[in-house]
Structure prediction request, 291 residues.
Amino acid sequence: MCDLHYDLTYNDFNPTILFASKLKMTMEDKYHCHKDFTELTIILSGKGRYYVEGETYDVEAGDIIICNPGVHHRNIVVNKDEPTVEFFTGFYGYHFKDMPPEAIELKDGRHLLRMGADAKREVLKQCYEMLAENEARQIGKYFMLKARLMQILLLMMREIVGTPQQKQKGCNFETYNKSYAVKKIVNYLNENYEQKISLDQIAHNMYLSPVYVSKIFKEETGESPINYLIKIRLEKARDILREEETGSIKSIANAVGYDDVYHFSKLFKKYYGISPQNYRKTVRGDMASGE
Prediction:
């Protein structure tokens, strides 16, 4: 029988996941170890520092700190004003070929894994999906978390054992990181514009700080998340005014996320140079005249 299924393990790959969460590094923890499980710390954003088994590691977005059972470690806070945001997960019940049971060993003997741009982007995506799964709390949550953890581990092993990587084209993980996060924010705004939305809420949904969200969103789109949201709402309102002959301005304001009809009208006139009432009259007049 072909042993292709076991090219990375000696048997079925079936780890048990204990937890998956995220944390802002605002406080330093004690120098400690875990006896019964492996812990991965994956940097989501910012820069930081870790002290692992007597060695200090400077980390940035996409880096992975590997702490096998018995490996002592602690984080070091670098900047409290812009704390590092980390994803961490614990698991056991695995054995990769040419490595001890319950351990992931790097060829250089260190504890920091820094992967290529594409692999980093995919690992980051899986981290965000695991955090979202935790929030959703839907049926089958454990198995969804486990499936995504397994993808992360397999991506790591492909990097560690030297699987040929696709040629890089000057790609930059920072760009991928920002692009992915901003795309998620844009999708969220387009799908929830009629709800009450704040910058803090957007940041919470993305597991990032409000300052970082504003920074990357403006770098990618040229404007703030809230201004982007306003444009979405006003474009939706303009569509409704074009399509519906009846209906109060207040009901239209409510439909696009505004409780205050005066504030809505003021924003509409600021962006389009005409009030919602007069816009509807103008559109209807043009349609009636056949223009």
Summary: Strands lie at 16-24, 38-45, 48-52, 55-59, 64-67, 73-76, 85-92, 112-113. Residues 117-136 form the longest helix (20 residues). The chain has nine helices and eight strands. Residues 8 and 157 are 8 Å apart (CA to CA).
